[in-house]
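G., before I forget:
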Amino acid sequence: MTTVDRFMAANDKPRQTGTCDCDAQSGCEQAHIAGAVAVPSSTRRQFLAASAAVGASLAAGTACNDPAFQAYFQKHYLQLTEADKKRIFERLEKEVEQTKGVRVKISDPRPLPNVQFAYALNLSVCNGNRRCVEACARENNLPDDPQIRYIRVVELDNVTHHLERGNVYYDHEKVPEPGKYYLPVQCHQCKNPPCVKACPTKATWKEPDGIVVIDYNWCIGCRYCQAACPYHARRFNFAKPNVKPDKINPDQGYLSNRLRPMGVVEKCTFCLHRTRKGRYPACLEACPTGARKFGDLNDPNSEIRKILWEKRVYVLKEELGTEPRFFYFYDD
Amino acid sequence: MIRYLLYLLKMARCAVTGGRTYYLWLGFLLLFVAMGGISWAHDLTEGLIVTNMTDHVSWGIGIANFVYFVGVAAGAAVLVVPAYAYVRHDIKEVVLLGELLAVAAITTCLLFIVTDVGRPERLWHLIPGPGILNLPSSLLSWDVVVFNGYLALNLHIPGYLLYRQYLGQKPRPIAYMPFVFVSMIWAVSIHTVTAFLLSGLGSRPFWNTPILAPRFLISAGASGPAILSLILQVIRKNTKLQVRDSVFDYFKSVLRITMPINLFLLGCEVFGEFYTGTLHADSAHYLYFGLHGHNVLPKYIWTAIFLNVASTAVFLIPRLYKRQTIYYVACVCTVVGVWIEKGMGLIFPGFTPNPLGEVIEYTPNAGEIFLNLGVVAFGALLFTLMAKVTISIQTGELHDGPSENRPRADARLAKPATESI
């Protein structure tokens, strides 16, 4: 016997005949190459049959009705058919009902034709009251535990525009504090978004109406987009977001404020589940000073067009070339 | 086919048999791997909230280690180039170990990513076909491509050469030499792509500098020879593989170039940040001197600078580097120094202050440290097992067929250079 055979003899289960480990009932008729053992054709056939069976079941599995299976293999949002979406939304709505006891409606409003959304913020009027921050949290089902807030308001000295000299954690009895001005920052839906460039799986992309969206079921949670964003606009779900059932906003958009899973990134979406249906974003409606302005850049009669035309408007970190769609201006 | 499967079985058996020291080493590594596994399981169930990472510093010790170990993987080229391009036979005897170190290092890099992403079960989204790979714009997508390519190259070349040696047959140059030359260039690309994924971000001024890629490559050329020196010394002392002194002389000759250049590039960066004194230098200020009372990092980076300067001095002064102990201590200092400056000294300050000017500090907690140690231990374990097999095959202990029929493995390497490469 060769070394190989001796090795096999020492390490394999006892064989029925000779030096071959095929499971033929009688002596093996297969040819043996010197120093090696050919795989008997019966075991080869069995192996091929087994792999065919595994392959077939995997293929069948894609059409299989198990919701967990379907959820795992769900394709990118842009590859979904209308039927896929209907099934997915129903599954998600059922999950929320089962886990939170709340009935929600997930919609998928498509971009309005020929619309380019933009936001403008009047720094002469914003007084840092942060009602926008809380309204956004309620509208978008942002958890308190751990706390996620899309909007951060930066308090700056009147002498500086540099964000890194600001303070986000101001906590005064009354606002505005003398000598300061207030600059709310949220996702600017940049025309040239560095986050979209960075995402390795295209889980975030820019829609035709200018809103940068995230497919929460496609995001792998690598957080490269968070590193890429110059405005600290993106949030990561480090834990399972825990939104209390009585705080859940049932009017949900698939790409915006539906309940997100752990381990994915999210951000302000200009409330597309509202704005694509002709309403204002929640932050604008909550602002008591009227500092927030929103509209369609393509609409010649819109307030936003008027502001860009008449006011001295600027954007943050313009030198980075991100071309934000969030403009800051002063009344003078 | 069967012969190959038996070869795999014999390799596996060889990998797990050894003396008492060997088993103690494997056990030590497995202990850390297990602790790392427990930590990762905790991450998976509770979420990454159990780490110290936040929306402000969203990449921590895991990515820091990822960046460092890519350098280790690229550093294998330090052996590949002289072994094949300059046909140095002394280095050729150990080059396979260098390539397998690259395999272990790339595996640890991939594991650092897998244990750091929020949804590891969705990593198939990166595979073009079933998933979507954002080429050409995402540098992280490029990283996926170059990493897997480098892994494949460094599995094929030693895999092929070792199998042929095991069979007692001469390797056919066409089956590996083209891949060798590709791997020399590819080694540069893996580390450049990793540098680019950081330096391409306008949002992080600390990283957005053209000097990042050169610094990465030079520090890889420093930590590579240092780690290999230490590994080969351990192998020389504990196995039958002959590692000639000329190999260590070669490492010293590389270190005495790359370490000084590394210090020079550090000087260039520091000048650019502090002399110009723009507000973008806040991150550098945070790293070297602390910022607004936050000063967790300066002690680490100054330690790293001290270690790097001290080891550079050793590598430049013959009276010092000719002494074995001093040389190995300097190698350890290089490994630690480069790790600090390239890992935590690069990733953490990049996020501090955050884009809105807030200074939120980050240091890893115990869970993260154990996870990272576990991943490193896994890589060390992988390398140990592969090195054991490689050494057994190269010394002729592990071969196909009975021992008296096969020529001694290193007899071939002792032949004059007239044989084809």
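The first strand of chain A starts at residue 105 and ends at 107. Confidence is low (pLDDT under 50) at residues 1-5, 7-41 of chain A.

More on Monday.
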